[in-house]
Amino acid sequence: MSAEVSGEGVVVDKVVPSAAEAVADVTNGASLAVGGFGLCGIPSVLIHALLDAGVTELEAVSNNCGVDDWGLGLLLHDKRIRRMVASYVGENKEFERQYLHGELEVELTPQGTLAERLRAGGAGIPAFYTATGVGTQVADGGLPWRYDDAGNVVTASPPKETRTFDTAEGPCDFVLESAIVCDFGLVRAWRGDRHGNLVFRDSARNFNPLCAMAGRVTIAEVEELVEPGELAPIDVHLPGVYVQRVVALTPEQAQDKRIEKRTVRPKEGQS
Hints:
The protein is α/β, with parallel strands linked by helices. Helices cover 21% and strands 28% of the residues. It is built from 8 helices and 13 strands. The N and C termini lie far apart (57 Å).
């Protein structure tokens, strides 16, 4: 890591030379909060670096697990992920196959709850109550987390604490959800400076700030690296206090993006 140091002895230049160096201390069994939604805004370069590093037995927390040949799907294909916390399976057939054949543990979580669990982890809030999931297996327990190879449930979600609170609509039941904190947060930003301040573009903002907050060590790959002071404070979506390492992408890496499912209208006059 570059070591520009402030007068208080605090490292302020967080740029590292390569993605490989940025993930060098990610060990087998580490937990990862990975930004992105589908294939939008995923830290694809950092994921490739983890693949090359050979780490395994990972626990990944992300909105989904990419697709079969991109994103977290690359780690999944090589059996590098032991456990997945996500809000949906998406269009990843290998994700579905591993889950149903007992090769992968999966904790499916309502999408808004997953987002708030990550945000709470970064904000230092250990748990919170939500109405989402009350009266279902989300609260009552019994959601299949792991199957065996014969399709039998061998691990199921435990029941969660519920309480009744007074609301504007009267007494309502709520379920207690725990915050998520991971060993590492991996995110992708449109622009970032050497202090780790980040700006996300359009829908790529999605889960990235939340996953950055939830990581004990957060690594950001940025499409455009700028100098401190070039980002107007009002434009910063995530302050650098949440980011420990920054990787500047090459123009080719920044442009290497995929669309999960392209849908277009026919040209005028075509059926």
